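Reproducibility note. Readers wishing to regenerate the assembly model reported in the main text can use the exact inputs given here. Chain order matters: entities are listed in the order in which they were concatenated for prediction.
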Amino acid sequence: MKYDQFKSNFAYKGKSVYATVFERHNDSIKTKKQKFAVNNLEKIFKATFKISSKIGFHEMSLRDLCRETGLSMGGIYSCIESKDIIAIFVKDLVQLVFSEIIESALEQDDPQQALDDLIRHCMYSTDILHPWFYFLYFETRSLPKGHQQDSKNIELNMIEKIEVLISKISPSKKAINHRYIATMTLAMIQERYLKHWKYKSDDTNIDEHADEIIKLVHSAISYNS
Amino acid sequence: MKYDQFKSNFAYKGKSVYATVFERHNDSIKTKKQKFAVNNLEKIFKATFKISSKIGFHEMSLRDLCRETGLSMGGIYSCIESKDIIAIFVKDLVQLVFSEIIESALEQDDPQQALDDLIRHCMYSTDILHPWFYFLYFETRSLPKGHQQDSKNIELNMIEKIEVLISKISPSKKAINHRYIATMTLAMIQERYLKHWKYKSDDTNIDEHADEIIKLVHSAISYNS
DNA sequence: GTCTATATTCGGATAGAC
DNA sequence: GTCTATCCGAATATAGAC
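Running the prediction on these inputs yields the following structure tokens for the assembly.
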């Protein structure tokens, strides 16, 4: 399944992301009407990602956020109970998306196909939800203490799943350590969304990029000497 | 040249890093006696790295810095003219170290050996100066606008040099794009110092880790199909 | 060269009108 | 549900004593 097809089936694109956030956290959101809340959440997240990507989450003041969203302080606080909770909502959504990607890729029996799908779907979802994944990576330190380990576990869990698949593909020990290949696979996937500025003007599209990563992983798995 | 030998020849370890900072920036440092300045710079940088790695540079207040260094506000400001300049000094040192690593590795004629050395020396120097490189990666956004591009250029320059070496090793076009392999090589090097928390309790030492990266790069260069 | 004390600005958060 | 006005603590930076 290539990018276009993946995207058309993807549950978290457009407005539906904010609806998901609202449904998962409506206990802490003062505004109870979904229509109002989703509309403001969209403004708040888009503005947060825009400003934070330039200067960082902590340096972004709520007055910056008012200016960018067009909302007032009161309007902001009707959707979020504190500044911190914006980052927590992001972590929660990223966690949800990755867990669904993993679950879906592991449904099939062929480990080779499962690995390729996992790599592809990670790349596609981190592209569609780029600001969310980018934010979480760079702002994990801004999360309240209890949530920071969650963020690291999202990554460790993904590496573990990749490692298991590699070991199924190549049961005998090869030249390059499997855990190590798994770690590097994720690092290569992250490279694209973390260094977005490198790829904006690039002619390599995301399908080709995924192909290159998959080839590189295959070459590492089968490497001898 | 393995880690221990590299480290014993390395110019920027221990106190000499702070002496380098002082020499390169003494025009903006009020304290003119090297002995005093170097001593305080050491305290300031160590404290900055410790606090920033946990909560981020912007969230670190100068009062935090006073507490951690044992210096007063006046003592801090005798060595740095503003908070921002701490980050600028870091960028400057990282730039210096990488440019010397590149220059030294490219002195030899064999491109295969030069590439292996470049990878190894990047890994070793980013390990020895871990807090400096880690800080620059995560705090590039905290740099004053004019300095942010410098930071990105350090990375782009390294990738370019790696790409040239790969193309010398493998002049004919192979299955995986050379620019792409170069980009991934740097991403793999960075993986270790960016996710330090993964490797603290790991039994893989840095020489073995460098070996694995070099094997993986070789496998990518020679991959067919 | 280093300290304490202070000026001044700006942050997150809230109360109450509409 | 959204706005304006305001509280209060904390931030960077400086002035002047020692």
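We highlight two features of this model. Residues 30-33, 36, 40, 71-75, 78 of chain A lie near DNA strand D (CB under 10 Å from a C1'). Chain A has a mean pLDDT of 96.
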